[in-house]
Each structure stands twice: as structure tokens, then as C-alpha cells.
Amino acid sequence: MSLDQDDYRWRETYFVLFDAKKRPRAEALRRVLVGLNRRFQFTHEAADEGDFESMTIVSPQDYAAIDISYLAGEEIEEQAAILAKEMSATADTAADRRRIQGIQHCNARFDIMHFAQVTDDDDGEDEMLDPSALLAVLEALADLTDGVGIDPQSGALLR
Questions:
Q1: Edge to edge, what strands does the sheet with 64-72 contain?
Q2: Is residue 90 classed as helix, strand or coil in its secondary structure?
Q3: Secondary structure (3-state) at 24
Q4: How far apart are the C-alpha atoms of 114 and 61, rounded to whole Å?
Q5: What is the C-alpha separation between 65 and 116, in angstroms, rounded?
Q6: What whole-number distance in Å separates Cα of residue 112 and Cα of residue 67?
Q7: Integer distance in angstroms from the first to the last C-alpha of the chain?
């Protein structure tokens, strides 16, 4: 993690699964995210020959930060197939079943780690944490890659 451990506490991790051929260029991804919220602060940006690798987004007004990392390869394909199999049992609609079916063909993933800012008066409650930045980033990444957002803890589709 690229955030100061003392200032932020990890809350949850989400995935966006997609085809590696749709991996965005770092500059294009940043442009999309700036369009979501001009107050986002970007740090620790990394690219591989212009292709997105990772970044941290700090959203002070939401008391939150988001780390995004790109992963690809056989391990992601295997995990996607397992996840699709597990999720297929809970699919409620034909559209969800189609999206879950598509997951098993994904070979790339964004890991989106959500962090809450720890304040001096933090008593363990998260009443100041606003998930809107996280939800907007998840949706933008899924749209940009024609991917599927997933909460791996619950197995829920997010897009």
C-alpha cells in the first residue's frame, strides 16, 4: 500500500475484472478519474510503457483514499473462473447470469482498495466515511474496460 499506515485504515477491496486487451493507457484513465472529481489528489502513479499499472487517489472531502493496481495473467483467469462458478448459484436475473458467464473469460483485474482516513477524534466509528468516491471510481473503471465490478467478500456484482 502506498498510503501512510497511520493516516488511513483499510476498509474493503473490490475488483473490476476485464479482458487484458482493454487495459487502459495511464493518461486516459487519469483523465477519466479527474473528470469524476477535480478535487481528487493523485499520488504514486505508475505505468508500463504508457499502460496503467497503479495509483493512489486521495479524496479529502470523503475522508477516504483508494489504491488501484493492475494484475493480469493465468492466476487471474483461474480466480475469475472460480469466482464465476461461485457467483452463478446466486444470480437472480438473466442479465446477471450473462455478466457472470463473461467473468470466466477475464484475464485481467483491477484491485481497488478502499481506505478510511483516521482522524484524531476517531473512536472506531466511520460516520465521516463517504463511499461515493469509491463507487464512482468502480463504475468508471468498469465502463472504461467494459469490465465487471465485484465485491469479492460478498460475491455481489457492482455493475
A1: 41-48, 51-59, 64-72, 108-117, 8-18, 148-151, 156-157
A2: coil
A3: coil
A4: 15
A5: 7
A6: 6
A7: 25
Quick: pLDDT tens for 25-77: 999 999 999 999 999 999 999 999 999 999 999 998 888 999 999 999 999 99
What is the Cα–Cα distance from 128 to 146, expressed in whole angstroms?
32
CA–CA separation, 33 vs 42, rounded Å? 10
φ/ψ (deg, to 5) at 28:
-65, -40
Q: Cell 493480469: give the residue.
A: 72
Cell of 9: 485504515
Encode pLDDT of 103-155 as tens digits. 988 999 999 999 998 877 655 554 566 788 899 999 999 999 999 999 988 88
- DSSP letter assigned to residue 107: -
Residue whose grid cell is 473462473: 81
pTM: 0.88
Nearest by Cα to 151 from 71, 48, 142: 142
User: Which of 69, 64, 82 lies closest to 9 in space, CA to CA?
Assistant: 64
